[in-house]
Amino acid sequence: MAVTDAAAIPGKPGELPYAPLGPTPARSEQVTILFQAWRTLIRHKWVIAGVTLAGILFGLVATLLIPETYQAKVRIEIDPTANSDVDVGEVSRRDRADAMLDQTAVGLLQARSLSERVARNLNLANDPQLFDQSLPRSVRMRNATNMVAGNLSVEQQRLSRLIDVYYSANDPEFAAKVANSVAENFIQSKLDRGYEQTAFARDFLQERLDSTRRRLEDSERALVEFERNQGIVTVQQRGADGSVVSQSISSAQLSDLATALAEAQRKRIAAEQRFRQGSKLGNASGDTSNQALQTEIAQIRAKIAEMSQTFSDDYPEIAALRRRLQVLESELGTSNNKGVDQLGAAYRAAQGEEAEIRNRLNALRDSVLSERGASAQYTVLSREVDTNRELYDALLQRLKEVGVAGEVTETDVSIVDRASVPTSPISPNLILNLALGLIGGLFVGFAGAFAFDLLRDVIRSPSDLEERLGLKALGYIPLNEDVDSVPQALVDPKSPITEAYFSVANLLGFATAEGLPKHLVVTSTMPEEGKSSSSYGLAISCARQGKSVLLVDADLRRPTFKLPKKSRVNKGFMHLLTGQATVDETILHGESGISYITAGGTPPNPSELFSSGRVRQIFDDLAGKFDIVIFDAPPIANFVDAPILASVADGTLIVFEANRIHTNLAAQSVTKLMKFGAYVVGGLVTKYDHRKDDYTYYTYGYNYDYSSRSDSDTTASERTITIVQTPQ
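and the corresponding structure tokens:
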């Protein structure tokens, strides 16, 4: 990391070139998903590339190992109008209606029963090249059915009644043979299914017809027996609609007499009218002879009247006419009397005939009324006979229709294109397999990378501090494997670690409105993140800038700075908290212009000491004595030591070890400091390898237990810094 020189920062004297450091609004909402994906791609590029290459190699190997597969296609047509000219009854109409549903046809083609029929028709179970003949036939038959059904696929053409049937196999001739057999057996199965349906209907109708015939015969015998017992003789007559009607003789005679009576009444009325008219007019007969006499008499009277105007009454011709008139009038009177007598006789004869028929009708009516006493039962029996006869006729007609349906050999399915032997395999497809391998590898690589980042959501770089925690990133401390410890690296002013701490120290000059914070607390989330080394590195950098620096070892649970054996100062920060020493009694002046206050020991109750209220008094006592006082505070963890110190200090710097601390744990630490009113100037990432992301997992916990670590776990140069005291 390049050194940032304060003099190189532009700006007017006395003005800050930019706002003081401190917490900033979280930028997670400002970071796009594409940017996050790009970061994941860059971070895991080699892993993704390796997985992608493995996917391509897998596609290549699969192409070489998978045997060639051939696919044969047969095309069939569903035509519901193929046999519409034959009326085969409701059974076949329902079958045609089902065939019109293309999805039904597709489902029937994929039915296991059809696959089993094809396997049985081709005798696949007995083919030694396909199945081990030592297996039971039922097992071989089941395997053959599974083979046909598993390699069969059906596709319906859009906006048509064409259906393509595909069958895939390693042998092209076998594929074509099975595909054609599927189409043929599908057609035959539909014919068989239609015949089975009509056969069932025929059997059912025949059974019902026999039962109805027996009931009809029984009802007819019961009616005949009743007529015999009651002495009822019936005759059958055909009605106007052609139906046959049974009627007893008495009822038939009564009907005939009623008709004859009506006719006699009509004749009697006509004769009566003629008699009355004849009596009234004098010539009731109205025959032609009377009319001729009347005409001649009228003519003679007219002639006499005409001649009387010219001649006298004794004129011979007039006298002759008068004698002729007398003769004609005498003949007319005799004829009229005879006609009236004839009309009266006809009238009386009509009356007698009517009376005779009426008497016979009345006598027969009494007989019919007495006969109808038993007609209720007769009517019931007769109605039952009629009902059974109608039902028998309907069933007989239905049986004839179903018989016609059973004889129909046409179907609504036909083969359009038979399957031919395929010449080229459909798989394996090298280009497709390589493409699938590429896509699958990329998908698995990306998914694995995102899943890894999601499961191990840790602070990796300074940008994570701003994007995930909302902290100002003051920089990072590079991982340096060439030296044993940070203090050794700080000896060289040109080492990367020295330059990194020098840059952070320069940025701290803008942490507050007054510049460098007077009291700076350096802490971390968990132990061994580099907070003590960072405290020492910042102290060295500030001292090299000519500032007076006091470094306070405030970690009473696990002190870092070690006093020399012959040191005259044996009191430290613990004694300040307990009031057993003053600030001047605990300050130890060391080399490089740095002064120290050691921990002074490890008390059994550090939290109580920090909560005693002495922290603010210590800060007041140190005010004005140094340009900056750096407190090497304990980790935040589950303790109040660091939050209490941070609440009083002018600024707090949080140290994060790269690729170790989870984001949610780091966020909890920041939140905890904020709740105590701490002013967090920013964060610092330590042990960061800018060349690659370090994914080494460090096991850690919330228990800040130092007793679990022996002195042999970590070398002294790694966990302690020996203070070189200047001579007084």
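(Above: one complete record from the training split.) Confidence is low (pLDDT under 50) at residues 1-31, 84-92, 694-718.
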